[in-house]
Write a structure and sequence with these properties.
alpha+beta, 19% helix, metal ion binding, Trefoil (Acidic Fibroblast Growth Factor, subunit A), membrane, 5-stranded mixed sheet, 32 strands, binds manganese (II) ion, binds uridine-diphosphate-N-acetylgalactosamine
Length: 610
């Protein structure tokens, strides 16, 4: 094992990567009729058929049936394959191993044909071939992988071969980023020996996905380059709508709609054009999805038309090869994973191009909740990439990112080449980009207060107690009355409690309180001039039940808070109540305003009353 690499839990909450509307109900179904599924010698429990899609939810089903038999149609039409809850030990072991190695259900993927069919996710609008130029440019398709599962990688490649007009594909370039899984060695060459369109390139060392993509680009000869992740499935008609945009204007960079392939069942969830999202980011420089803004909707007659997107997710896009080169491709100083999507997005817009999401083009992707492969040890690669990005492209606005990382940029190497590139290209300012392309983004500098929101009630009465004896503050289990006998009580709390987003900075997650730790993170809040208490795009929201985080809507009401510095009360708009904490200091409550209760007193960091 190479000591320079290690398994990592990505810092980014991976759930947030999944486009939001994809979280709809998971329908447990077996494909086509009551066909039967055999898994080794096991008795398998499957569910009767129900079709995919909202209209057919009523078919979803009753009692599971136990069967033995073979199902050659597992996963066809993008339907899910559901494994039984009870499994023989051998099978369970294989299933678990698949999850460990890939962070998705490889066992289920292996049951599904690498040529499986998918539903046609396109609107009728898209199927009118007169919408596309007849003389479209060819593209090379570059797919980089590091230790990808065999069936998943092959299905990605076959979905391109099976569902693209062959005259539009130059080569499919597979870039092996130094995998060590044996199936990715000679067996891969053997498998594709009869496919002249498929080329296999192998890097001499682990490069990370950014330099692997650059390596692939060196072999590209077609006028357009299309990148895909190695766990994708292209749907019917995915390619023409992308190439059409580039044929009309070579500075247009285009992304398909990314449909979600379920990590457990491999179900292909598609969304129609009314559910299309565009890309944004927050000041941690994390990518995020947003519904199409009103100003953008107004530019269109149909929801099937391509929409402007401030950023791209990163993995799936087409770009004119010469334009990509003119933009200086990627910063090759970016390592392993992350940030390159924002780099390409910013410079596309700032240096004369356009970035679009094309609702007629659909490609599925397996979104994973953790990174299955090893990352470089001894360096925070994501932070290093992000600092390079901020240094070169974000002008003064870089400070908002630096605040999030405690102003500690670390060693980010030399970016003078990249700065020169920006100068030579005479790109526009980041201010222009924010004003023109992403006016929805909240600018922390416009906040009235930023930092922690500290409660003054019930201070110093409890101790942090870790009954399990684990002295790990982060995993500390509770707050108990202090007994002053040491033991499992690891710290006397004479600090106060702070408003804390708890585990996730996600829509609709309940907000709580936690001992103030002064390190930002989940305790970092901004009070906007409009009276919102924000964490980037999520706002503190009270609708009569819990105090939660909800996507900021900008129309006051449940998200309107007024702070009175003299009384220290936080008044809530629509309810007229005040924010407080309960006596056991583990919950936020809303109650009638009364300035004589310390539990309703809050101190906002960096509050500027002017
Ligand atoms: C998203 C993007 C991904 C990339 C990343 C940020 C989508 C759907 N995915 O994360 O393409 O832009 O954000 O950097 O937009 N790989 C290598 N070498 C490595 C690591 C990864 O070749 O060292 C390959 C990997 O096998 C995969 C691709 O790069 O095919 C992207 O990696 P990922 O799937 O872990 O990234 P993802 O989808 O979480
Ligand atoms: Mn991926």
């Amino acid at each position: 094992e190479d000591a320079a690499f290690n398994a990592i839990d990505r810092e980014a909450p991976q759930e947030a990567d999944v486009p939001p509307t994809a979280k709809h109900k998971r329908v447990k179904v077996i494909p086509r009729g009551q066909q039967q599924l055999q898994l080794a010698q096991d008795k398998v429990i499957i569910h009767k058929q129900a079709a995919l899609g909202k209209d057919d939810d009523k078919n979803v089903l009753d009692a599971p049936v136990a069967v033995n038999g073979v199902d050659d149609n597992a996963g066809e039409m993008g339907k899910p394959v559901v494994l039984p809850k009870e499994m023989a030990p051998d099978m369970k072991k294989a299933v678990d191993e698949g999850w460990t190695n890939n962070a998705f259900n490889q066992y289920v993927s292996d049951l599904i044909s690498v040529h499986r069919s998918l539903p046609d996710p396109r609107d009728a609008w898209c199927k009118d071939s007169a919408r596309y130029l007849s003389n479209l440019p060819k593209t090379d398709v570059i797919i980089c992988f590091h230790n990808e599962a065999w069936s998943v990688l092959l299905r990605t490649v076959h979905s391109v071969l099976d569902r693209s007009p062959s005259e539009l594909i130059g080569e499919i370039i597979l870039v092996d980023d130094y995998s060590d899984m044996t199936h990715l060695k000679k067996k891969l060459e053997d498998y594709f020996a009869d496919y002249p369109m498929v080329k296999i390139v192998r890097g001499p060392q682990r490069e990370g996905l950014i330099r692997a993509r650059l390596l692939g680009a060196k072999y590209a000869k077609s006028p357009v380059i299309t990148y895909l992740d190695s766990h994708c499935e292209c749907a019917e008609g995915w390619l023409e709508p992308l190439l059409d945009r580039i044929a009309r204007n070579s500075t247009t960079v285009v992304c398909p709609v990314i449909d979600v392939i379920d990590d457990a069942t491999l179900e292909f969830h598609y969304r129609d054009s009314s559910g299309v999202n565009v890309g944004g980011f927050d000041w941690n420089l994390q990518f995020s999805w947003h519904s199409v803004p009103e100003r953008e909707k107004k530019r269109h007659n149909s929801t099937s038309e391509p929409v402007y997107s401030p950023t791209m997710a990163g993995g799936l896009f087409s770009i004119d090869r010469e334009f990509f080169e003119r933009l200086g491709t990627y910063d090759s100083g970016f390592d392993i994973w992350g940030g390159e999507n924002l780099e390409l997005s910013f410079k596309t817009w700032m240096c004369g191009g356009t970035l679009e999401i094309v609702p007629c083009s659909h490609v599925g992707h397996i979104f994973r909740k953790r990174s299955p492969y090893k990352w470089r040890t001894g360096v925070n690669v994501l932070k290093k990439n992000s600092v390079r990005l901020a240094e070169v492209w974000m002008d003064d606005y870089s400070k908002y990112y630096y605040q999030r990382i405690g102003m500690d940029k670390g060693d980010f190497g030399d970016v003078s080449d990249r700065k020169k590139l920006r100068e030579d290209l005479q790109c526009k300012s980041f201010q222009w980009y924010l004003d023109t392309i992403y006016p929805e983004l909240f600018i922390p500098g416009n906040a009235v207060a930023n930092g922690e929101i500290r409660n003054l009630g019930y201070g110093g009465r409890t101790c942090l107690d870790s009954p399990s004896g684990k002295r790990n503050l982060k995993k500390a289990v509770g707050l108990y009355p202090c007994h002053k006998q040491g033991g499992n009580q690891i710290r006397n709390i004479n600090t106060n409690m702070c408003l804390d987003a708890m585990l996730k900075n996600e829509d609709e997650s309940p907000v709580g309180v936690y001992e103030c730790h002064g390190q930002g993170g989940h305790q970092y809040w901004m009070l906007s001039k409009a009276g919102e208490i924000r964490r980037d795009q999520a706002c503190l929201d009270y609708a009569g039940k819990d105090v939660i985080l909800f996507g900021c809507h900008g129309s006051r009401g449940n998200q309107f808070w007024q702070y009175r510095e003299n009384t220290k009360l936080l008044h809530h708009g629509s309810s007229g109540k005040c924010l407080a904490i309960n006596e056991s200091r583990d919950k936020l409550i809303m109650e009638e305003c009364d300035a004589s209760h310390l539990r309703q007193h809050w101190v906002l960091e960096n509050y500027d009353s002017s």
